[in-house]
Amino acid sequence: GEYIKTWRPRYFLLKTDGSFIGYKEKPHPSNMNDPLNNFTVAKCQIMKTEKPRPNTFIIRCLQWTTIIERTFHVDTPEEREDWIRAIQSVADKLQEQEDMKSKESQEGMLTNSYTSSDSRPSSSGGSTASHKVTLEDFDFLKVLGKGTFGKVILVREK
After folding, report:
1. Where is the composition biased (Basic and acidic residues) (predicted)?
2. How far apart are CA 115 and CA 120, in angstroms?
3. Which residues does 136 contact at the CB level (< 8 Å), separation at least 6?
4. pLDDT for the residue 49
């Protein structure tokens, strides 16, 4: 169980998008509705253990802003290795996709960072078509709010 540690059989499907969907009873392809659990294995940690039962593994993942640990038990060490390998493979592919998107985004930002008719002078005195915008380019006027992920600040471009 999620809160009380009792062992009950569950049936899980791992999808290539990282969804790890659990059912109380073996799902039929015609009826995949009403899952008991649905979480993602993206950026998860997988740990093998022999406690509280042999052939146990734990998946630690982030759900919104909370770290969740889910404990699974299978019948054989081979079955555990198969699950761990499959979950890690999906998680690695998702991480590769995220890294590529991030790299493409950064490359796009570098090529589009600052192009305008009012080109700014470079440090050598000439003009440039590209300028990286930094915090030094702004005057801070007022802190509008603070939150978990930082501050929101009202600024004016210098």
Report:
1. 94-106
2. 10
3. 158
4. 92
DSSP 135: G
What amino acid is encoded at 66 in this protein? T
Cβ(12)–Cβ(22) below 8 Å: yes
CA distance 29 to 90: 21
Letter string b/e over residues 121-152, b meaning 16 or more CB atoms within 10 A of that residue's CB: eeeeeeeeeebeeeeeeeeeeeeeeeeeeeee
Section 145-158 average pLDDT: 80
d(CA 128, CA 147): 37
**Rounded CA gap, 155 and 48, in Å?**
50
The enclosing H or E element of 16 equals none
Q: Are 40 and 19 a contacting pair, CB within 8 Å?
A: yes
Domain boundaries, the chain: 11-95
Instruction: Quote the mean pLDDT of the chain.
Output: 80
